[in-house]
Each structure stands twice: as C-alpha cells, then as structure tokens.
User: What shape does this take?
Amino acid sequence: MHPIRLPVALLVAVVAGCGDAAKPPAPRVSVTVASVRAATVPYELDATGTVEALQSATVHARVAGIIEAVTFRPGQTVRAGDVLFRIDRRPFEAALVQARGALARDRAQLEAAELDAQRAVTLRERQLIAPADYDQKLATAGAYRAAVAADSGAAMRAGLDLAFADVRAPIGGRTGDRLMRTGDLVKADAIDQPMVVINQVDPILVRFTLPEDDLPTLRDHAGRELRVFARVGADSVPAEGRLVFVDNAVDPSTGTVLLKGEFPNHDGHLWPGQSASVTLRLFEQSGATVVPAASVTQSQAGTFVFVVEPDTTVRLQRVQVTRTTRDLSVIADGVKPGETVVVDGQFRLSPGARVLIKPPVGTPAAAASAGTAK
Assistant: This one.
C-alpha cells in the first residue's frame, strides 16, 4: 500500500494550525487600579525648617554683688517680672539711705539759701546791700539748687540699684540651666557672666527657606493669611500655624528667601533647635484632575501612566504632571476623570497587555482573596 501524499501547501497549513492551537494565551497581569478623579487639592510648597524660640533673653546682673538665693528651677516656666536671683541687698540699702540723707541735707541748705536770696532782692531794691553780696547770695542759692538735683539723681540711682538686686525675668518663657549659683560673685552688666537663658516657646516659630523661583507665586498671595504646617520626627499629624515673616531680600549665597511660621505650642510639642518638615499652603485648587502619585512613571521617554480599557487591556498614556501634593499628582493633560489607571503592577505591563484587577488592600474582597491564595 502506498502512503497518502498530501500537497505541500496543505501540509504546511496543517502544521501551522497545530502550532497555533498549542500556543497558550498570554497570562493576565495582576494589578491594582484607581480612578482618575476631579478633586480640590491645596497648592503647597514644601521645605525643611528649624524650630526657634519666639523670643530669647540672656539674663545678666545689673549690679555687682553676692548671690544670696536662686528662686527658680532649671527648665521652669516663668512669667515676665518673676524674681530669678537675689543679690545681697545690704550694700544697696546703705547707699540708698546715704543718698537720701544727702538729699535731705541739701534741701535744707537750699531752703535757707533761697530765703537769703529773697532778702537780698528786697535789700537791693532799697540799695542796702552791696552788689557783690547780692550776687553771692543768688549764686549760693543756685549752687544748692543744683546740689539738690544731683542728690535726687543719686537717690534715684541708689533706689534702682536696690531694685536690681532682685534679678527678674525680662520675658516670659522657659528657663535653661542655671549658669550662676548661690554664693557666686557677679559683676554688673558683664557680658561674659550670663546667669540664665530664657526662651519663649508658646507661641513658637519655625524658620525655613524657599527658592527664589517661588517668590512670584508667593507674592501673588501676599496680604492673605497663609497656613503653615510643621511636622517633627515621626509625627502623624502636623502642627498648624500661620506665616508671619517673609524676608525683604534673597540670600545671594543660596538663592533662597527666609520665611517664618508662628505656631501655638501650649503642650511644648515643638522645641527650639528641632528640624521640621514644613509645608506652606498658598491656596486651594478646585476641580483639579488627580491620580495617585504611585501610578505615574517617569522615564527617558517621558512621563506616563497605564490606562485600563473596558476590555481589560492597557494602553500607555503620556501625561503632563503640574505638581505632586502628598500622594496625589495633579494632571494638566493626558487623562480625564472617570478613566482607570494602574497604581501597582505597572512595571510588569506592556501596551496591550491584559490585566487582572486586584481589589484594594484592606477591603473584604482583598482579605478573601488572600485567604484563598493561602
């Protein structure tokens, strides 16, 4: 029996058909998706800042003497005018008594000299006193008048020195460590002898800088109360304050401008010297087209997202991102609200690939899917 001979073209077709039937379809890629939506998003500028005291005062002694008592604890919150140190008052009390005695003496002598001067005027009208004697009595009264003025100043100064023996807080705030102790000898107005440093920490400031390129946008919103947010450490909720200062010049060495935000700090959460992540909110943009920032991919070819079509295939779509705010990217062009973009799994995709949409993490469907996988 002779074998059946098929035409060559038919044989090739059969073989090719068998090969197509044996090739499995491409597997679907599991992805997480999100909807493109319109939202109101803040226009914000981010920076790194440093917490600083609203006011800081280094306390010095106004008079010299021995410290008799320290009346505060390091780290204590004090009010303006509270006594912090007491210097031995006795030398100043003695000086005040002496100055008041000299004032009383010269006042008595002035009173007598003025009476003599008044009599001299009467005698001169009657031509009963020599001109030289007349001039002398007027000069004596004038000299005692000047002495009384000087004595009044000396008594006032002695009173101030006595008051300065109680070293008081010039501002309210939190005290640092004691730099002088009981028994120490202090000098008057000695810059090299600070006694304690007080920082006013409620409210408190956060200083930060922005590039000079942000100045036009910042000036466009000048005159409005702008909100500032500061986050320190691992804070989940940032402190909220207001912008209170914009420097009047750009630092030419860094190309930045200095700004300061003021924050209520009743609980002492912000501390001078801390580093902070700062966000300055300029305005709220309504109707912005946004996608999750994780859906946007950047490459040398440009910025793009994967858009999921109704048939679960994906297409590569170029987008124009104007800015990123927290976990959202604001899109100027490329996608529109209502479309679906891939958030996770896009690095395993190619244009035209079919996807299997996973439920978002944390949903009951996601939990059920995870249980099934186990």
Observations:
- DSSP finds five helices and 20 strands in the chain.
- Helices lie at 8-22, 90-125, 131-164, 215-220, 364-373.
- The domain at 29-40+287-373 is CATH 2.40.420.20 (conserved putative lor/sdh protein from methanococcus maripaludis s2 fold).
